[in-house]
Amino acid sequence: MVKVLIPSGALGLGYDKVALERALAAKPDIIAIDGGSTDSGPSYLGRGVSKYARSSTKIEWAGLMEARAQAGIPLVIGTAGTCGSDSAVDWLLDITKEIANERSENLKIAVLRSSQNPDVIIEALNDHRIKPLEVTPDISPELIANCTNIVALAGAEQIAAAIKTGADIIIAGRTTDTAIIAALPLMHGCHSGAAWHGAKIGECGALCATNPQSGVILVDFDKDGFTVTPTADGAFASPHTVSAHMLYENSDPFILYEPGGHLDVTKAQYNQIDERSVRVTGSKWVPSDTYTVKLEGARISGYQNIMLTLIRDRNYVENVELWTADIHKKVSAKIIDRLNLDLNDFTIEMRLIGLNATMGDVEHSQIRPSEIGVLAIITAKNAELADEISKMLNPYLLHHALTQEEEQPTFAFPFSPADISRGAVYEFCLNHVIELDDPMDAFPLETHQVGGQ
Amino acid sequence: MADLGHLTHKIRSKNAGPFWLTIDIFCGGKGAYDKVASGLSTERLASALKVSPDTVKRFDIADLWVVKFSFPRPQVQGSIHDRDMHGASWAALVSEIEIN
Prior knowledge:
The structure holds two protein chains of two kinds. Helix content of chain A is 31%, strand content 28%. Chain A is built from 13 helices and 20 strands. In chain A, the strands form three sheets. Chain A has a ten-stranded mixed sheet, with helices on both faces. In chain A, strands 5, 6, 15, 16, 17, 18 and 19 form a seven-stranded antiparallel sheet that branches. In chain A, helix 8 runs antiparallel to helix 9 (192-202). Chain B is of the alpha+beta class. Chain B has one domain (2-99). Helix content of chain B is 27%, strand content 29%. The longest helix of chain B has 10 residues, at 30-39. Chain B is elongated. The relative contact order of chain B is 0.29. The mean pLDDT of chain B is 96.
């Protein structure tokens, strides 16, 4: 009934061109692709920028715009520019206009915005319309005011409103991964459980099949269920690959919360219908009493410098924990004294690469390698302070001796200058939902006519 | 005794949003699934990963020969003490757990 073409798990990851042509030949009704996620960390949302190269994004987006023009169907992207903030949406809008001008293509573009005004969120907090999700940082009006970016995750309703403008291309800010796929099937009266379930299965492209790097899949929705078909050579969906995708990045593999309700796949049936395709029925959509959308926010947690020292001397490798603990003690005392700070004003961490830099205290391995990298991470409340602290730490990492009796040792610095400024570092600080009277309340929708004649 | 890495097909760990980690143990067959489902207690996993067993959600999914665990991230993703942005390395520790 409604066929959705998903070219890839995300714009920027690439897609198989032959598979895309094959999928277009099956006459899809819409092309939907995700543009981001929180998975690369809080810096992208904090700064409101994309993690992918502009040139790669432009080449891949131009390919999808070409496919759209060829098929005469809408193209929708959710969570544009990795984080879906207004600045990231504008970045992709700018790329889109550039391509349209280069191709002399005249296009109607709908832009759905997800950035939130902190004052409005603070008002909602005071009105008790913001609710915490499971495992949630404490929030306050001050914390919200400190966020450099807050976005709300749009659902199917807001994407449907954007589709209804008749736009050729829809550039959406932050949305749930599934909303861009579920919207059109829901608009056409397809089974609601199937719409959301098929969207979840399809949101990472061919990750729900073999040959996952090929990207392209088709999800065909109807009144009772959905059918998923990868189109690349060597890509096959099976009940196992499809149902296993519910595990991916989900804390609960059977329940998925979305704006306006939740999906329950406990009773879903997965059947192989040909060598490539799987049909799924029995998924259930459970509407909620209140309409809520999730919020994401990031704020600056400090300013950071890092330094790397390499230890090859066997005695120092054997005693590196003592060495770093002694350095920490001595340099902290010096910083407190000379910069007139207290211990809460900065942190110095020295992670031992080769011993437990990945897992920290959770590591159980006792293997001692021939060399150890000491990754020093200095975090302070401003960049100048982080610089000062790392310069005070520098001589210790170069020359600190385990004992007073020995000659001064020297360790390996791979770089000059030894320290690297990372600038502002960010943290995720919201895991909440906001209640909305109308789904469009938090999501401005605008249209643009772009391109040459 | 055998470690989970040898006993199973694949072990994957991943963020489930910035505040949760999830670990999927793909056993690859009924024999391995039965061994893992009965031989790996939630307490054993929690103790190997130094997390509180009360916070661990467990899903034994016989149809997929999968045992799945989800728990709150000990450090929120990307916070200054987080060491693993994508939560990918927890799988390596799980693969070294030995069960009977």
